[in-house]
Amino acid sequence: MSIRFPKFNLALKSKFVLTISFLILVTSAILSGFLTERQSLLIERELEKRGELMARNLAYNSEYGVLVENKLLLFNLMKGLYQEEEVVYIIIQDREGNILADWDRTEESHLRRARKLSVAQQVFKEDKIFERHFTVEGEEFENFSCPIKTTRVERSKEEVGLILEDEKELLTREEKIGVAHIGMSLQHMRKEIADMKRIVVLLTLLVVVGGVLLTIFLVNIFIRPVKRLVHATERVASGDLSHTVEVTTKDEIGKLASSFNRMTTSLKQSREKIEEYSRTLENKVKERTAELENALKSLKETQAQLIQVEKMAAVGQLAAGVAHELNNPLGGILGYSQFALEKIDQKPIRQFDEEDTESFLQYLRDIEQQTKKCRAIIKSLLKFSRTSRKKEFESTDINTVLKETLVFVKHQVEKNKVELQEQLAESLPPIDGQPSQLQQVFTNLILNAVQAMPEGGTLTINSKTSEDLKAVKISFTDTGVGIPEENLDKIFEPFFTSKEVGEGTGLGLSVSYGLIKNHGGEIKVKSKKDQGTTFTVILPVSGEKVTSESKDEREMAISR
Amino acid sequence: MKILVADDDPIIRKLLFEVLTSDDHQVTVTENGFEALKAAQKQSFELIFLDVHMPMMNGLETLINIRNLYPGMAVAMMDSYPDQLVNQAHKEGALTCIHKPFDLKEIREIIKRVGNLILKDSS
Q: pTM of the predicted model, to two decimals?
């Protein structure tokens, strides 16, 4: 169990005053206590001494009176002691214990009797002065009993009558002939002690009070510079940095005050500097903004160039496809041209019958058809590779764009043993866009899919209208190696590629992303390692805006 | 001669069929490798014009199968652009390779060669 002390919030001054006052109080209390004790002892000792002295004197002076049994003499002796206030009674007894003379200060006979009894009851046996403390009827007494002695000279019977010359030869013997008792009241002593104590206490209080007052006064003086410092820090804290503290002492407070002043000055300077900097900062920001705007402009130009580069790279990849597409019809053209010439070689036209003419015409028709096919392919290629500076969009049918794309890409797809599954909607609402840009995106996605399936697989291209009829969705699903989860949000970054050096630029997806964004659409990707990937392109139908559909399960929408 | 044609482009199939038939050969045309192998199972052919770039099973794979199954069949590859598949085809036993668009002359030369080879074999 822990005891918690309540927290006292005391000012510095109070702390000092209270502590010092407490010390003064404790010290004074101890000293005065000690003092009173000593005084009490002294007073007691004094009483004892006086008592003894009086008793001895009385005993000595009473010798003659006791010897001759002169009571009057004894009474006279006692008179001298009446003046002593503390002396309450005096009793002189003889050897047998008979009271020869006695005096008592009190008038009350029962008290007298009681005292006498206490003192003189028994025969005093002691040989020297004896002190006893006793109480009679509530009164305390200190009793001093001193034996009265006489000196008897021992004379032998023979020596009686002779004049003695040598006193040394006298044998002396002390003999007890009686007792003198003096009783001292302790009341007086007690009163004396009480008075003394009272004085001491008063003095102590005076000292304490005086000390406390003095402490308060002195502490105030010492605290003043501290208070000034506190005040100054408060002022500075609230913002007034021109306030300085008067340094009046050389002690620690003085040093603190100097440091404080220095700190304040440097704070003031710093603040002024900051204000200056923030002023120039504004200017710098304006400058930078202008710089950034320029940079942005050139960046946009670079972006346009990159799109072109990517397009060309795609075209390069597609060269084989283009060659394939063109060389087949050309094969037909060349073949039928030569065949037709051979025919004429074998049989002049003049001799043609109906069958021959029909065959011949068919050859020419085939040539015409294949030539037109070549024309269309080249037109398509040009359309695709042309730098599209036009910013205008035109009404476009997605299925048409897809089919045109497939013309080029089909070769690459088939070459890599990828089975193509077309799931194109029967009809799609038109979208606003640039067909060549869209073709570039589709080409990119299809080629990526093919590359993800080096051992072959299936590429499914699906086009459909979205459920809310506001967008067209085109998905490209492959059964390839998939994209690891940690890369899923990086694939649209420029130059991010998992291919080897020299194999891919890594620009394709980032450019595609930009182009689709330009069309107001989105590209989404869903992938599982080794299971395949689906890229979905969402484009707004003419007049609509694309919004992320919440129904799409587990697709990562990358909308930047 | 019994000639098999395998090409994915209809105009090539049509051309070769007409030209070779008018040269008095028995021509069977197929679209891809699978169809070609099926046809070869039903009849024995002396020569096949085999397109290199076909979907699903390309010319090279078809070639390997033919060389294994019908070693007596001569294989002439056709391509529409230079491709390393062609080099491999030569290693796998293709007779030769012609490039599209080809002259009819080239076709006839191949047939002549195969004809000589057959004569050589039988003698």
A: 0.48
